[in-house]
Amino acid sequence: MIWLTWRQHRKQAFYTLLGFAVLAAVMVPIGLSMRHTFADLGLADCVKPVALSEAATEACNAGFHRFTNQYGSLNLVAVLLITLPVLVGLFWGAPLVAREVEQGTHRFVWTQGVGRTRWALVKFGLVGASVLLLAVGYGLGMSWWAEPLTQSAHEGRFGLIVFDLQGVVPIGYTLFAVALGVFAGTVWKRMLPAMGITLAGFIGVRAAIAILARPHYQPARTQTFPIEGGGIPEGDRGDWVLSVGIRNADGTMVAEDTRIQCPPGGKGPDGRACGAELGLKPGAYNWELYQPADRFWLFQGIETGIFVALAVLLLYLAVRRVRRIA
Question: Which residue range is the domain that position 229 belongs to?
Fold first, then answer.
């Protein structure tokens, strides 16, 4: 059975490895170029958790600006790269059962001394193990490639795109995509509908988890700072800022999604106190809700666990569906 599975999928495995080799040949030189530029601009010292002088801070800001201008367009490439897990689900998971049923070959396989459960476990196990190795390599490679981009961005590794691209979450995404494709193939039993359901389901679940669940994996923290005086603190680079606003002394939100910075005793051209046009009262302050940067790996582990659990559930349901296919 193992030999038969290899014979069936060896071309598929070859073209997948060839595609990843081509991707590596393109991405590795870009990654090396980013890292060299990052070092030449002296940005490695800027991301260290040490206090910087005013002159050093200005130099770092200028360096980050130059780096972003040169490589900021690569964020569009990152958008394309996060689609790779679903592509594996479409072309590895969806055809696994659907192609056999659509072509009728399942009748021959399941009547030659190989039970349906054994067939499903061997197929799903070998494909799952191969996909797991592929996903580990993909996650490690993307973590290396995206590191300069994440260090140059204020939100760091918590950025909407780069969080999905690196670490261990690509493993969960890929296993979920393949399991969803397998399950869809047991329900719709034709390749194109199974691939369509896999794509729609993957996008829907990923979006729901990222938007609705991820911000609440841990209780968010808050910080406040005055609207007058020392200015808006930069905070720790890499914090995921969920919401900002201006509140009055009693905690009432006056203005959302904005901050204000006034010099001590500052007044506008009309002589009114700074911020009076917003209806601010004495004691008003800037407010921020955020997830600390040091929770990155905790959030990665939680999200990976969610998608691995969904993958296990889908494969269990797929095995039960295989037993009922006529």
Answer: 224-293
